[in-house]
Design a protein that fits this description.
Two copies of one chain form a homodimer. The first copy, chain A, is built from five helices and three strands. Chain A has about 100 residues and is mostly helical. In chain A, strands 1-3-2 form a three-stranded antiparallel β-sheet. Chain A binds a DNA duplex (30 and 30 nucleotides) through helix 3.
DNA sequence: TTTCCAATATCGCATATCCGATATAAAAGA
DNA sequence: TCTTTTATATCGGATATGCGATATTGGAAA
């Protein structure tokens, strides 16, 4: 454990959540996470997550021009995200105040 | 990956946060997490986390009667928690609405 | 066409995370 | 005292997580 609260984990949840808000490519996902964490996750981190989400039927490829693949969330993915969000809220219900106060 | 969004991780953060709100023993920590996650984390999960937080100076033992050890957060721990909370908020800033809407 | 670049894909590895099993220790109850 | 129970502690191992390195692929630019 490098320091307290390494904040590792939850990446799959975050990626599904990002794509639910806006259709995204792998690179866009990497960039959005960089904005939030400060560090850009490596390709070896993000693409396997996308592959997993795709194979599970939670996201699907949409029309793309060129080699860029954009993904959108599926109905099944929305259901899954809904469940996951519920769990997240159960776990962190009292983070509400911190989130309201500190993040702008 | 068993299912999407396994919600693994963040345990150290959660434990430090719990103790910051109320002085707690290991068993109390286990019980509080059970309330939130539905499953009671095993001793082999919780006690090493407490040991780590204690050795790092983020929590300290307080007077206990019997064999029960209660911990309280230290000044150093508060600082660490503050930093970690900031990171958490950066990462999940847009969960605010979900937390407000769904958790009661 | 040929070269270069950017997005995607994959593999092996290091580490983190958490659990189950087991041990220890102290108090409570017989 | 002896047994039982409960809280704490520790260890090995299974799995998840994310990274670095590298390959591939298609478009853009020359």
């Amino acid at each position: 454990m490098e320091s307290c609260c390494s904040m590792k984990g939850f990446l799959t949840f975050i990626v599904l959540r990002l794509i639910s808000k806006k259709n995204m490519s792998g690179e866009e996902v990497r960039e959005e996470i960089r904005k939030r964490k400060g560090t850009r996750p490596s390709p070896g981190t993000v693409y396997p997550v996308l592959k997993y989400l795709n194979k599970s039927g939670f996201i699907e490829e949409i029309k793309h021009k060129g080699k860029i693949k954009k993904y959108k969330i599926t109905k099944k993915g929305k259901k899954e995200l809904n469940e996951a969000t519920k769990k997240f809220c159960m776990l962190f219900y009292d983070m509400k105040d911190d989130l309201s106060r500190r993040c702008y």
